[in-house]
Design a protein that fits this description.
With about 190 residues, this protein is an alpha/beta fold. The chain is built from nine helices and five strands; from the N terminus they run βαβαααβαβαααβα. A five-stranded parallel sheet has the order 2-3-1-4-5, sandwiched between helices. α2 packs across α3 and α6 packs across α7. The mean pLDDT is about 90.
Length: about 190
């Protein structure tokens, strides 16, 4: 079993690279963004709460995200047997600690944190283009800037946290999708030996 956190700012390529990791390693993909958007689209109570935070460019409260994650993990035991890619989680150090506890209770751990490193100018450009192509309402300049501010203040400290644990693998997030994926595979193969 190999559990991977794919880490990076909004627009860094986490979703794109996660899809390739799923195909390559047979891992179960848990995108907290997808889970939350599903709840919002269905108009669930959780979706309404999530939307109130997301529409303001804010993070979902930790306890709520941990409960969602525990539910996703426990409702898919066969799917998570080979391991999991956590995409969009954790986003804060308290979430990282809670994830460690959640996995320890299930007899496993985070094995590697793949950090896709992309500068802000490139991120804004990618997200604006994504919004134009996908119609995602949160891909507008005002919300993008708020999301990047939140990322730098609340999420980027995770880089140091996971470096201290020896799990952070910095990957240059610019260049061809194939080149980036090859660098990720190299890091994962070193971990899973």
């Amino acid at each position: 079993m190999t559990n991977i956190v794919i880490f990076g700012a909004p627009g860094s390529g986490k979703g794109t690279q996660s899809e390739r990791l799923i195909d390559q390693y047979g891992l179960h993909h848990i995108s907290t963004g997808d889970v939350l958007r599903s709840h919002m689209a269905r108009g669930t109570e959780l979706g309404k709460i999530a939307e109130s935070f997301i529409s303001q460019g804010q993070l979902i409260p930790d306890e709520l995200m941990i409960n969602i994650l525990a539910d996703v993990l426990d409702s898919n035991p066969a799917a998570t047997q080979k391991g999991v890619i956590f995409d969009g989680f954790p986003r804060t150090i308290p979430q990282a600690k809670a994830l460690n506890e959640l996995l320890a209770k299930r007899g496993t751990e985070v094995h590697a944190v793949i950090g896709l490193e992309v500068d802000d100018e490139e991120l804004v450009d990618r997200l604006i283009k994504r919004g134009q192509m996908s119609g995602r309402s949160d891909d507008n300049l005002e919300t993008i800037n708020k999301r990047l501010t939140v990322y730098h203040s609340q999420t980027s400290p995770l880089r140091d946290y996971y470096m201290a644990e020896g799990k952070y693998k910095a990957i240059e997030g610019k260049g061809s999708i194939d080149d980036i994926f090859n660098a990720i595979k190299k890091s994962i193969n070193q971990v899973s030996r």
